[in-house]
Specification:
Blueprint lengths: L3 H10 L7 E4 L7 E2 L3 E2 L9 E2 L3 E4 L9 E9 L13 E5 L11 E4 L3 E6 L5 E5 L9 E2 L10 E3 L7 H9 L4 E5 L3 E7 L3 E2 L10 E2 L2 H11 L3 E8 L3 H14 L2 E5 L9 H9 L1 E6 L2 E2 L3 E7 L2 E6 L3 H19 L9 E6 L3 E2 L6 E10 L5 E5 L8 H5 L3 E5 L4 E2 L4 E6 L3
Parallel strand pairs: 6-7, 14-17, 14-18, 15-16, 18-22, 20-25, 23-26
Antiparallel strand pairs: 1-13, 2-13, 3-12, 4-11, 5-7, 5-8, 6-10, 9-10, 19-21, 21-22, 23-29, 24-28, 25-26, 25-27, 27-29
The site of adenosine monophosphate has 18 residues, from α3.
Length: about 400
């Protein structure tokens, strides 16, 4: 059996990051930057008010209450119009540019409109004394020109997309989104919702894997269910290798007579067939078909999921420029015994966990651990990494991978 680390190292080595591309910012959400982003604009672009209120000379409000003459009004989006002189103020709305002469803003909550005086001037009483700079957002106090904002390897989050828009970065250099083909194989699988004929089961892996690929940021190309037929499978795989950047298949990689994936890929691709020292997901195949990485996952649904998590997902992430490839790992306290047999394998037991009052992460196994029992696994939010031996007793520590991280 191949140790998991050796299998992972081999696969990752064969899946280097793709060649970066330059693309419009709007298309780059979720992708990984291939270059540092340097700002060519300042943010905010001008001094502006952080509140609705009155732009003042701070010296005029040193003693309050004080009455001032309102000489204008500036809304957000308007250019400053007029100057604030001694004894004067301008009514101003959040985001509007500061008028010349003013150096602070008194919030509207501390104002009282007095109407017009005898000369027809609008008057306001202000009851808050503010220091110079109060409630003023300075030009460039978020971003300055030439600032290095985000570095290579950073995933473009929605907040980063917002920043890129704010600095008018029209294009970004990123690792391209992967187009990944997914298929399942097996004469027993049906997808059309019709009553099950004897021996048939409903297809579940391809649906699951398509979702996992999408969650990993890939563009999914659904190749459907392929019969256990070598000619058909060869045609589908060859087409996929032309159209896609990677191929994920489930089923047919173990020792059965009808394991056609093994037969076909063994003939047309450069494959390595592994028996990994893990449970579930012992059989696993990886190789290249016309240079395109092919992940041959086992058909048992839980094995399919676990080998996607441990083998395919990290490799696909690497191809998309990520540097953090694995799920977040934490040390957890085991609340119920994690029992297993010694078999020379690392066991990935599906567990549910959460932080408890002691500040520690606690886990308990889901109620079924069979490699066909996807329902139980689907209710898990983590996998405990249980080393070879007879398991881990309640109260002890175990490393877990957080599946939603
Ligand atoms: P295989 O790896 O093809 O020998 O399949 C192992 C087990 O997983 C068998 O019980 C299959 O029926 C089942 N299986 C294979 N592919 C799927 C699938 N796409 N959806 C659900 N079960 C599957
Ligand atoms: Mg099969």
């Amino acid at each position: 059996m191949t140790p998991l680390e050796d299998a992972q190292a081999f696969v990752l080595e064969s899946c280097p990051p793709r060649e970066p591309v330059t693309m419009p910012r709007e298309q780059a959400g979720g992708l990984v930057l291939a270059d540092v982003v340097v700002s060519t604009e300042i943010v905010p672009p001008f001094n502006n008010t952080a509140v609705d209120g009155y732009a003042v000379r701070s010296v005029d409000v040193a003693t309050v209450p004080v009455e001032l003459t309102v000489v204008g009004e500036i809304a957000a989006g308007a250019a400053p119009d007029g100057n604030v002189g001694p004894g004067e103020t301008i009514r101003i709305m959040t985001g509007a540019p500061m008028p010349p002469g003013a150096d602070a803003v008194v919030m509207v909550e501390y104002s009282e409109r007095l109407g017009e005086d005898d000369a027809g001037n609008e008057r306001v009483r202000l009851s808050e004394s503010v220091a110079a700079g109060t409630a003023v957002r300075g030009a460039g106090d978020d971003v300055v020109v030439g600032e290095e904002l985000f570095f290579e390897g950073t995933q473009i989050t929605p907040a980063i997309e917002g920043v890129l828009a704010s600095i008018n970065a029209q294009e970004v250099r990123v690792y391209p989104r992967l187009k990944v083909a997914v298929l399942s194989t097996g004469d027993e699988l049906i997808t059309d919702g019709s009553p099950l004929a004897p021996g048939q089961i409903r297809e579940s892996n391809k649906i699951m894997l398509a979702g996992m690929l999408a969650e990993a940021g890939c563009q999914v190309v659904d190749l459907g269910v392929v019969r256990d037929d070598e000619v058909e499978l060869e045609r589908v795989l060859r087409d996929a290798a032309v159209e896609c950047d990677a191929i994920v298949s489930s089923g047919g990689v173990s020792m059965g007579d009808y394991d056609v994936v093994k037969a076909v890929l063994g003939r047309i691709a450069d494959m390595t067939w592994m028996q990994m020292a893990i449970k579930p997901a012992k059989p696993f195949a990886f190789g290249k078909l016309d240079g395109v990485p092919v992940f041959g996952l086992p058909g048992n649904p839980v094995s399919s999921m676990v080998s996607f998590e441990l083998m395919a997902r990290p490799a696909l992430r690497r191809m998309m420029g990520h540097t953090q490839l694995a799920r977040t790992s934490v040390v957890a306290i085991v609340d119920h015994d994690l029992r297993r047999n010694a078999d020379g394998k690392l066991h990935f037991m599906r567990v549910n966990g959460g932080f408890a009052e002691d500040g520690r992460y606690h886990v308990a196994p889901v109620n079924a651990q069979g490699s066909h029992q996807l329902a139980a696994t689907a209710s898990a939010d983590a996998m405990a990494v249980v080393p070879d031996g007879d398991g881990i007793n309640a109260g002890s520590e175990v490393a877990v991978l957080l599946l939603q991280s």
